[in-house]
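Example 4.3 (complexes with small molecules)
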Amino acid sequence: MDAFDPIQLHFNFDNSFARTFKGFFVPCQADPAVAPKLLQFNHALAVELGLDPVALNSEAGLAIFSGNETPNGAEPLAQAYAGHQFGGYASQLGDGRALLLGEVIDTQQRRRDIQLKGSGPTPFSRGGDGKAPLGPVLREYLIGESMHALGIPTTRALAAVTTGEEVYREKALPGAVLTRIAASHIRVGTFEFFAAQGGVEKVRDLADYAIARHYPDTTDAENPYLAFFTAVSDAQAALVAGWMNIGFIHGVMNTDNMTISGETIDYGPCAFMDTYVPGTVFSSIDRHGRYAYANQPEILTWNLTRLAETLIPLVDPDKDRAIKLLTDSVQHIQSLYETHWLSGMRSKIGLTTEDPHDLELVNDLLWVMKDGQADFTLFFRRLSQALRGDSDSVRNVLEQSGAFDVWARRWRKRLEKEEVAAESSAQAMDRVNPIYIPRNHKVEEALAAASDQEDMTPFSELLSVLSHPFDEVAGKEAYAAPAPVTDTTYKTFCGT
Ligand code: AMP
Ligand code: MG
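Answer. The structure with adenosine monophosphate bound is encoded below.
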């Protein structure tokens, strides 16, 4: 390997978590990678982070992204957290296959975590190997970038490398490391861990830290900790509404996979729904459908209730009063969610104003889609064509279109109140209804080519299409189409 010059790389680390929470993380080093290879590098994100993309897209960058070199100023550590997994409490989880390198302040003055995922075992690995196969690493890269382009808050990928080592799952697979960027890695499960291990004082420290980092405005509230809870609830309600609006199923909404910042995190068994079936579950481990598409809003409240429980002693010295205040806030989450969701659904059908009957109009449309077994993404994308005089395009996405025609008459009447030209509404719809989402068969195709044939071409092509999900490109029809019909249901695996 060429001489490594860390000075050139200018990571401006400022590691506030490491400074603040001694005892709640373990300093750790990554396992050396025997023959690392840089597969994918996110140039635009590097620029956003204030890093030098040219210096990083190199042997020196590879040394860092594979865990072989620690950049100047990094303090690699594994964070401790707990969490409720499928409803049951796990008191000790933590970064079992990840290392936080540190935090940098980006070009917009935002503090961002840089984390290696798949870099080897830590004291939290609990028998796991701390490694990640290439498939899941590329999957997280792809879906995270797609979500970002779709306008959904998300952690992102700065780089994906292979380590030159095999990792063993059901078979030997190429080992890989993802460099993940996050607003922070503080999870609902981090609060649960701090509450269980450090009591009130530690939860207060963590809440103060999270407020300063993510919700500084709540400092001035009459009750800052209650305001903090409401702010997290609102961010998470907006996030889950965003998922529902584009047909995204996270798949493993355990409390350790729910961020305080409101970013989507941990793309394990996630997938986008093709045909609109509210009960859709892809994850092979979600046997009872706890994290089915339609259950996500309910799980949002369930998870945030776990956060609320940790905040009781901070919200009021009188426990009963604290519980009452937090309960009131918890009871408000579904209405926060519905507001975000309805606002998203209004945009999807071209509405910019509010009418008391909109909820009914949207819900009736969902019935039409469900009965007509519509492809969720194609249906909304083609709906704008109906405003351009072509209703067949959307009718063709439905098994039967009679109910749609009835609904469309009500919709057109409602659109008249908008007092804008049909073409303007159609264009606005095309800016929120993607044509390209990570279709499951396309994702699998790209990951298989990379893992089995060391061919990154399908991945690069898919990534490029997904980076502009609202712009239709001639020749890319295959990326917009649902999976060919087969008799096997698509299944996803945690796998990382
Ligand atoms: P996740 O499925 O990403 O939410 O992970 C749940 C927990 O399992 C976290 O504490 C992870 O660090 C841990 N974990 C998952 N995969 C591995 C692995 N291969 N080795 C060690 N720990 C792991
Ligand atoms: Mg996780």
